[in-house]
Amino acid sequence: MANSRQRVGMEGSIAIAEAVRLANADVIAAYPITPQTHIVERLAEMVANGELDAEYIPVESEHSAMSACLGSAAVGARTFTATAGQGLELMHEVLYVASSMRLPIVMAVADRALSAPLSVWGDHSDAMAVRDTGWIQIFAENAQEAHDLVLWAFRVGEDPSVLFPVMVHIDGFNLSHVTEPVLIRDQADVNRFLPPNRYPLPLHPDRPVTMGAFGPPAIYTEAKKAQEVAFENTKPFILKAWEEFEKIFGPRYSPVETYKAEDAETLLLTMGSLSETASLAVDKMRAEGKRVGLVRIRLWRPFPFAEIRQALSRAKTVIVFDRSISFGGPGGPVFSEIKAALYGQPAQPRVVGLIGGLGGRDVTPSDFEYMVNRGNEIAQKGSPAESEMIGVRE
Amino acid sequence: MAELTWRDLNIGNIITDPGNAGSYCTGDWRTDRPVRDQSKCNKCGLCWIYCPEAAIYPTEDGLFETNLFYCKGCGICAAECPKSVITMVEEKE
Which of A79, A305, A369, A371 has its CB surrounded by the most CB atoms within 10 Å? Predict the structure, then answer.
């Protein structure tokens, strides 16, 4: 970059590749898949051109990609991969191994719908299918945030008090393929923010260790208890890394973000890039005198219960917008999480679940206006269904 | 191992004394015990070769014995022995 203080137009995918370059990753093991391909394609170029001194391992599948990442992280190498949709599903079993072995891999996921029917377009089905795998999961709203959160992900994941893998989610196409102005962070600043990776017990011939041993019934429960406690305890270090980020780079990030929510009676709740679209609808309805606001979840795992309860406590109605379905379940995954977070709380806003934006279907500001109106209608009159899909041709 | 609490485990359950699986008594799994009639043994060593747990070892006089700390009682040695040296007997105690 000629001038690091200047914003440059680039895809969200390239902004992520630039962050991996600044983080000076040691190993990238990845398999291309739409809409993630541009990330690893650019990284392969960087390695080939000598812009990034890393091992690039072109594997034969996503299952192999994540497996190679395990080995790389186990020796203490800074490790990155990226995937989407079906690729994330093919990794599924290895995702649990990464988190349970406490290997701080960073992975960008350009969220994509799941087959069938075959769809390369965006929604959150892939992210929700892996929400219980024990990874820290964060959703970026724009390309700048994607760039910043990848740097943050290395810092948090490799923190000796954390040691968990981190997924940075960007909406497929909406972020991966859209050109936006991005401020590439300064290398000296990144070096101050991101200390070298010091994995405490790496594989090394001088100090042999056994990793991935089997856990008979006498020890498995203790292993899972230790993992869950450690995962719950990541929260202060997640927040601390954002404080450090703010000191060095300026922007302030938080687990939950609000927009015009202070005195709002009705709150829209979203995740990912469509939050910016929703804010346009909020602006329009505010201009019409409607007390509407927006809450956006950035940190999905560990789930920010305290921040969500605080953000929603004063609203009358919360309208949750999901981009995936839990078939036969209690509405969309975000919706059921919000209901669970509010259960038993003194303040109980009515919570309405709406599902849309599936498989790349556009969601416009007027769609969000419709959601506010329809959501308030359901909140008042009730609905026989747990949740409702919007924008369906009847 | 049963005494370890969740607080005692290393990060990611990493084991810092590799090879400690040797202290794990798989003999507890056994329901049938191999009993030998050494007078029939021709010292061919097939039981030793076939044991999937390497629980059989040669003795100084060329015969073979079973390490019952590891023997799971699968009975492969008894099935493979051409001289019917080994009989599988139910564990009673």
Answer: A79
